[in-house]
Amino acid sequence: MSKISFEITELGHPIESTYDYLVKLLQERPSLPSGTVIHTDYQTAGRGQLNNSWFSSPRLNALPSIYLRLDRPLQQIWSISEATALAVYKSYKEQLSSEDTIEIKWPNDIFVNGHKIAGILIHNALAEGSVAETIIGIGMNINEEAFPPELPQAISLHLVTGQTYDVKAFLRQMLRHLGEQLARQDYAALHAEYNDLLYQRGIRARYCDVATEEPFEATIQEVSPQGQLVLTTTTGEERRYAFKEIVYL
Question: Which residues does the UniProt record annotate as the domain BPL/LPL catalytic (predicted)?
C-alpha cells in the first residue's frame, strides 16, 4: 500500500461534529481526496460510540475526522480498526512515563492508568467485496483540565503528566503514526501487537451479554482477526462477541 498523504483542514469556527461535517462534505464532493482530515478547536455535539456524546472544552483537545479510500479486502476490515488504535496508542505512549499503564480497550478506546483518554469511531463503506471508503472520527483528550462528574472514567494527557501540549503538533504526530500503521503489510504482526496491548486481557472480570441481559464473569483471551472479543467463562465455556453484543461491567 502506498503512503497516505494527509491534508488537514482547520475550521476556524465551532461546529457540531467533525464526523458529521465530513459525512456531509463527502455527500457534496464525492471525489474528496483520500487523506482529507477535518479538525476544529471545538465541537458542540461531538460523537462517540453507541450514540454517546464526546465532551471537550474549546481549544484543549484534538478532534479530527479522517476520510480514506484504502481499497482493502473485506477479510482485512478489522485491521483498519487495529491500525487506528495502535496509531493513537503510540502517540500517547511517547508522552508517558514508564510508570504509566496504557492499553487498548476493545474495540478501540485508549485507556491510561485505567481511565479513558481517547475514543475512536469508524465507519466503513463496502463495495464488491472490499472496503471502499472509511471515515474515522477520533477524540483525543490532551489538555483537558477537568471532566464533569458523569464522566468519572475520563482523563487527559495533561491530568496524567501535569504538562501542557501543542494540540496541533500532537495531531500531526498521530497522523504520521496512522499512515505507518495503515501501510503495514504483515497483518498477523499488526493483529498480535493489538492483542498484546488489550485492556483486561487475562484478568477475570464481569460482563453482560446484551441479548440475554445475563451478567457473567469471564477472562478475555484475545480479539479474533475478524474483530470478535473472545472470552472464557469461569466454567470453561468460550464465548465470542461482536461490537454492541457485550458490555463491560
Answer: 1-186
Taking the C-alpha atoms of residue 162 and residue 219, their distance in angstroms, rounded to an integer, is 34
Grid cell listed for 126: 463496502
E strand or H helix at 175: helix 167-182
Question: pLDDT tens-digit profile of 130-158?
Answer: 999 999 999 999 999 999 999 999 999 99
Q: Write out the residue limits of the CATH 3.30.930.10 domain(s) in the chain.
A: 7-196
Residue intervals of the chain classified under CATH 2.30.30.100 are: 203-248
Please tell me the distance from the alpha carbon of residue 17 to that of residue 42, in angstroms, as a whole number.
9
Residues β-bridged to residue 104 = 110, 198
Average pLDDT of the segment spanning 197-202: 98
The pair phi, psi for residue 247, each rounded to 5°, is -125, 135
**Residue 71 grid coordinates:** 481499497
The answer to whether the pTM exceeds 0.85 is yes
Fold (topology level) of 7-196: BirA Bifunctional Protein; domain 2 (3.30.930)
Compute how many other C-beta atoms are within 10 angstroms of the C-beta atom of residue 149.
Answer: 6
Q: How far apart are CA 178 and CA 174, in angstroms?
A: 6
Q: Locate 88 and state its grid cell.
A: 493513537
For the 203-248 domain, the top CATH level (class) is mainly beta
Q: How many CB atoms lie within 10 A of CB 45?
A: 12
Q: How many other β-carbons are positioned within 10 Å of the β-carbon of residue 206? A: 11
